[in-house]
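Researcher: Before we compare anything, I want clean individual predictions. No alignment, no superposition, just each chain on its own. First chain goes here; please echo the sequence and then give the structure tokens.
Model: Echoing the first chain and its structure:
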Amino acid sequence: MFTNSTRRPPSTPWASPPATSRRWACGRSAERSYRPSGISFLQTVKKADMMTTQNNTKHPMKGANSMEVTYRMQNGYQVPNLLMPQMPEVHLGKYAELRRAYLKKRRRVLYTNLKTSGALTEHLAEIEQTARKMVEQTVARMAQAEGVTEELKATDPLRWTGLMNNLRHSAEELVLSDLIYA
């Protein structure tokens, strides 16, 4: 049997020895000895058990880890019963759908986080409501600044319609760049 003479015992019995301290046994496969020569096998096992019991102490769990998970048997496997949280059915309009498509295509991590946490529908409903208010307020301000009034509507309806469409498209561009694609 060959033993390296520069071998030093590691600081703990379960730590790996330095690279120069390998033991080779004749007739058996080469294997490392992780135990200093002065410690018995039972002492090493007791210390390892103490370490695992210290590492397995229960800590208060946060978030999804604190949920109780139930399982069902399916084809001989235990499959967890996982369901998305039930959200009320909300009508999502044009701006919400644009935001969803943007998140899905360009901001995948945010989209996945919102979807898995159950906050996607709430986020999209808030975006829809905010975008509609912003468009209405912006159109009203721009119409007042441009002089588009009810009087113009009565005298020249085609011109009024064209101006209002231009103002609405301008307001939507602002909302899309500031809110939807931000």
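Researcher: Okay. Second chain, same rules.
Model: Second chain and its structure:
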Amino acid sequence: MDATAAGEPRYRVREMTEPDIDAVAAVRVSAWRHAYAGLMPQAYLDGLSVAAYAEQRRAAFADPAGAVTNLVAEGPDGTVLGWAAYGPATSTDPEGTAPDEGELYTLYARPDVIGTGVGRTLLTEVLRRAPYPAVRLWVLEGNARARRFYERAGFRPDGGVLVEDADGSPVRELRYRRASVGVTVAVTVAG
């Protein structure tokens, strides 16, 4: 949890519930449009739909076999400001998965709260809760701000590269990795 000058928690992190799905979908779509402008085709970003993504989240959320943990960060008034999801490392990794590794699938904050500690608070909580000795994630190669954020938190690129398709355009992602157990996260946010 990030704290105010008076020591009061600024953000509360909790497990996501079904009523959070619409707010999480709005966070995801607005964060993608903000973070990936110029890195993905604009038509692709403009075509993202909060309603369609909410339906996808509902289906995933309802899956009793799912191994994903979803966390939300909320402000003092209960407004969802950010979302993170983690679980076992996925099989989409071109080099396969390490059976004991976890993966941070998603970490997004509303664009209007970037730089306020929401992302840091979520990441700290993911690393505290993740029952894996190491956690990996994928970050767009051209997303310098996100790469700096993860590097400040102790993640390092490990050489893994994945090329995804975004509306017919290749998008390169780099794999980052760090230990998750017993490591304190200290992130300095700079513009």
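Researcher: What stands out in the second chain?
Model: Residues 182-191 have pLDDT under 50 and may be disordered. Additionally, The beta strands are 12-15, 69-74, 80-88, 101-109, 134-140, 156-166, 169-179.
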